[in-house]
Design a protein that fits this description.
Helices cover 41% and strands 17% of the residues. By secondary structure, it is of the alpha/beta class. It has a domain of 198 residues: NAD(P)-binding Rossmann-like Domain (Rossmann fold, 3-Layer(aba) Sandwich), CATH 3.40.50.720. Helix 1 crosses helix 6 and helix 5 crosses helix 7. The strands form 4 sheets. A 6-stranded parallel β-sheet has the order 2-1-3-4-5-10, sandwiched between helices. A 3-stranded mixed β-sheet has the order 11-8-13. Helix 1 links the parallel strand 1 and strand 2. Bound molecules: NADP nicotinamide-adenine-dinucleotide phosphate. The site of NADP nicotinamide-adenine-dinucleotide phosphate has 28 residues, from helix 1, helix 3 and strand 4.
């Protein structure tokens, strides 16, 4: 029986990885660790978890993801996204454990006007972006056989994400101003988790892969879609980035070219289709018909 270890199992992606592992055709034995059972910045936690799980493969969904807060907590962000990721990758390499790590569209240099390829220039214009970029580099330096999956605009039925925020604000307010000059591709965490599982079992060459649902939209488009699908009546006004200043700079264009991963796992479904699945699950949950996740 194969043994799978999931770090950051309490997060959006972590919970979906557990679901994807349960649904996988192979008979996985799953060892899922949230931050209270395995803090990836604590070597002792890692030693104990690895000894218990003795995994064939480890997925690292643990990350410091508070993009704006990272600007005032750079050391903490680096401890998790750089050192934590490195320690995990190195320990897996040493023990002969396959490793899958996750990164972000924020690592790409801004200024492209076509979908971003894995080989495009990287930069990191915020603390979060720099720590994720450094984390990727460290993971691949210490575990050359690892898969690093860059993704964008992740959401699920739970956790902190734009979709849930729009549902809440749409019900609370009559009018919202949402940024329309940043475009990208929303990614349903369930689709990302399934693709990551498939990629890891495929024998495809290691290295960096992009994954996002297909199609392109702005945050404004996404807010409108959430409200329409959720039956919420709220006026959504398009605004420009400078009208909504944030401590961390956001990329204006973060559409990912997913052809490399698609060659192995198939073309990701359109973001509207994925969002519909998520909204359906939320509606069934609200009606008491389905648990989350
Ligand atoms: N969310 C997005 O829009 C987005 C976009 C692009 C890329 N990504 C990347 O996708 C991956 C998954 O993100 P996500 O959306 O699932 O984020 P998430 O929901 O914030 O989950 C991250 C998880 O990591 C845990 N964590 C934080 N510090 C930890 C530590 N020291 N040790 C162990 N666990 C720790 C968090 O626990 P606590 O909640 O207890 O802190 C949380 O459960 C990350 O690599 C992220 O950078 C996310």
């Amino acid at each position: 029986m194969q043994r799978i270890m999931i770090c950051g199992a309490g997060g959006q992606l972590g919970q979906k990885l557990i679901g994807a592992a349960k649904a996988a055709p192979n008979d996985w034995r799953i060892f899922a660790y949230n931050r209270s059972s395995l803090d990836i910045t604590r070597p002792e936690d890692l030693r104990v978890a690895l000894a218990e799980a003795r995994p064939n493969i480890c997925f690292n969904a643990a990350a410091y993801t508070a993009v704006d807060r990272a600007e005032s907590e750079p050391a903490r962000a680096a401890a998790i996204n750089v050192e934590g990721a490195r320690r995990l990758a190195a320990a897996c390499q040493e023990a002969g454990i396959a490793f899958v790590h996750f990164s972000t569209d924020y690592v790409y240099a801004d200024g492209y006007n076509r979908p971003l390829r894995e080989t495009d220039r990287t930069l990191g214009t915020s603390v979060y972006a720099r720590t994720k970029l450094e984390g990727e580099n460290e993971v691949l330096r210490h575990h050359p056989g690892a898969y690093v999956i860059r993704t964008s605009w992740v959401y699920a039925e739970y956790g902190h994400n734009f979709v849930r925020t729009m549902l809440r604000l749409g019900r609370e307010r009559e009018e919202l101003g949402i940024v329309c000059d940043q475009v990208g591709s929303p990614t349903y965490a369930g689709d990302l988790a399934a693709a990551a599982m498939q990629l890891s079992a495929s024998g495809a060459p290691p290295g960096i892969y992009n994954f996002a649902n297909s199609g392109v939209c702005s945050w404004y488009d996404l807010a409108k879609a959430v409200h329409t699908m959720g039956g919420i009546e709220c006026t959504v006004r398009p605004i420009m980035t400078e009208q909504y200043p944030t401590p961390a700079k956001r990329p204006s264009y973060s559409v990912l070219d997913t052809r490399k991963i698609a060659a192995t796992v198939g073309t990701p479904r359109h973001w509207r289709e994925a969002l519909t699945s998520c909204m359906d699950k939320l509606a069934r949950h609200a009606a008491g018909a389905a648990p989350l996740p």
